[in-house]
Amino acid sequence: AHLDRIAAVDTDVHAFLHVDREGALADAAESDARRARGEARGVLDGVPIAVKDVLATRGLPTTCGSKILEGWVPPYDATVVTRLREAGLPILGKTNMDEFAMGSSTEHSAYGPTHNPWDLDRIPGGSGGGSAAAVAAFEAPLAIGTDTGGSIRQPGAVTGTVGVKPTYGGVSRYGLVALANSLDQAGPVTRTVLDAAMLHDVIGGHDPRDSTSIQQEWPSFTEAATVGATGDMTGVKVGVITELAGDGWQPGVMARFQDSIDLLVQAGAEVVEVSCPSFVHALAAYYLILPAEASSNLAKFDAMRYGLRVTPEGSPSAEDVMRATRDAGFGDEVKRRIILGTYALSSGYYEAYYGQAQKIRTLISRDFDAAFGRVDVLVSPTAPTTAFKLGEKLDDPIAMYLNDLATIPANLAGVPGISVPNGLADEDGLPSGLQVLAPALADDRVYRVGAALE
Ligand code: GLN
Hints:
Number of helices: 15
Bound molecules: glutamine
Helix content: 25-40%
Order of helices and strands: HEHEHEHEHEEHHEHEHHHHEHHEEH
Strand content: 5-15%
Radius of gyration: 21 Å
Distance between the termini: 26 Å
Structural class: alpha/beta
Number of strands: 11
Low-confidence stretches: none
Strand order of the largest sheet: 1-3-2-4-6-5-10-11-9-7-8
CATH class of the domain at 2-227: Alpha Beta
CATH topology of the domain at 2-227: Amidase signature (AS) enzymes
CATH architecture of the domain at 2-227: Alpha-Beta Complex
């Protein structure tokens, strides 16, 4: 049914870069047989899923939305993908994304943008707009995204879907093509909080192949979402972040946010305002740390090891081949960030830029620590506006970066966050999102509160 739906709508939505019809059908048939024998591998056995094209999939193309990886077929699976396969989820295909996950609109994909199923003239968010649009358009019941600065949560907000960024180290990064190693996390993209929790239970947990993977037993997130769904918030302390509201926040988004705060109070939660003063510097710090890490990660695309190779006329040197390949293979946003990152890391400027940004990162973690000393969870709108028009912010990188204002602090501090659909804004009738943040390791809280808000 989902493959049929993809065939019917994906010409318009363009959520997928690659659909694996045969593979998905074969896996679904095996799952049917298993379940007929009473040997289902768990609740999600046989439920199809779409995977963001930044995760390595054995035998399936993995492009990261870039021309430089066109034609690359990984010889191995990311751990997240291995876990999906082991749990019996057929993989429908790979979803569109901003090139190397840099962007907030999916317009930086080298393969053309994804369109928001709510209004095809609008962006589906980014960088994981393909995963969110696939779920919103009923092309897939579940998807995997990755969130380095908001790429699961912001697309969730603007497409009316649920997106979760787990605690840093909670889900393995093995086989996830790194954008910024210290910020990247893979997580669920779904239509309900319970679906996200069930998927998180499948993909999460320790992986010896990822040196930053946390070694501990995690509670059942399915259980936490089930408890939350009763709607009782008695005894839960909720902090509203002062700095994530005000000028530049769309009135309709703020109005729906206020409705949900009222709902939490009615459900028995204690709601207080909490100031996180360093959050106003989060965006500036992020756009130094991320390009710094990204510029170093992307150095491996050297025309020798993977994907594209452009050989200029004559007798070119290895350096000529490398230069021509990168020139043709990387898009504008990727080049912009490589230049920014290389500059920020260069000797003489390192302390002034990268060093300062790391200090701000520490201050942001301290803001979270202080806040979580007073409240169980923090909330804010996920994104300042609803989905904007395709092309509207493409020539204005700063305007594009501002979309991530509310989502970036969680990545800098490594804490978990969920975006839940939060109703339609009055002025345009488009979806808005509410974000719930919890202390590191307390992902169960985002499921509990998220499910209560559904
Ligand atoms: N929009 C942010 C950026 O462009 C977030 C990216 C992400 O989370 N992958 O960096």
